[in-house]
Amino acid sequence: MFHRHPSFSILLSAVLLSHLHSTQAADFCVADLTSRMTTTGYTCKNPTNVTADDFVFTTLVRGGNTTNINKAVAVPGFVQQFPGLNGLGLAVARADIEPGGAIPLHTHPAASEMIYVAEGSVTAGFISGAPSNVVYVKKLNKGEVMVFPRGLFHFQANTGEEHATVIASFSNSDPGVQVVSSALFGNDFSSFLVEKTTNIDEAEVKKLKALLGGSG
């Protein structure tokens, strides 16, 4: 009859524990948000410190504050807010838009986006790249879906008479975002240069800067 030596049991336990940790590491890489973001994502959180909460995001249950110039708000669930997304190529967001409001023209440089209308209706669209610059616009009702290809300018506007809620998914855990109006008029980009590079009258540029918090 074979008798196991005590040291064999210790060795077996160590091997199994090591295998468990390596399997977890291969299965997922929950973001350690205290680490520095790189082009490949965040450093992995120690698997022994990972909990089910790292894979759950509850912030989208409630909409944000739409009392602003756009009458709309977007609440992101990117890797910075949802660490379990790290390395998975996924992200989520919720947009709430009041009648007459809009999510302004913007782009996600690192991801394609798909939206699902959960409440109300929206008019949504995107602009294809140069030189064609074709505009694709569609009114979407509750339950309908639209996709925006990576990097293209797109928007959602509430042209209906009731509150609209849109749920968005992305093909990158850190899609990035740049809003056209903020990029042009919400910073210290010289009004003179904005005029020269957009052909918008400098007086109008300064008016828009005052409206959006820019200067210069």
- Output the strand order for the largest sheet: 1-2-9-4-7
Mean pLDDT: 89
CATH topology title of the largest domain: Jelly Rolls
Number of spatially distinct domains = 2
Topology, number of strands: 10
Estimated structural class: alpha+beta
If helices are DSSP runs of H or I spanning 4 or more residues, what is the number of helices?
4
Unreliable residue stretches: 18-23
**Secondary-structure element string:** HEEEEEEEEEEHHH
CATH architecture of the largest domain: Sandwich
Biggest β-sheet strands, sense, barrel: 5 strands, antiparallel
Radius of gyration over C-alpha positions, nearest whole angstrom: 23 Å
What is the CATH first-level class name of the largest domain? Mainly Beta
CATH H-tier superfamily of the largest domain: Jelly Rolls
- Identify the overall geometry: globular
Helix content: 10-25%
Gap between N and C termini: 87 Å
Q: Which strand-content bin applies to the residues?
A: 25-35%
Disulfide bonds: 29-44
Domain Cupin type-1: 58-206
GO cellular component, one term: apoplast
Keywords: Apoplast, Disulfide bond, Glycoprotein, Manganese, Metal-binding, Receptor, Secreted, Signal
What keyword list fits this structure?
2 domains, globular, Jelly Rolls, alpha+beta, single chain, five-stranded antiparallel sheet, 4 helices
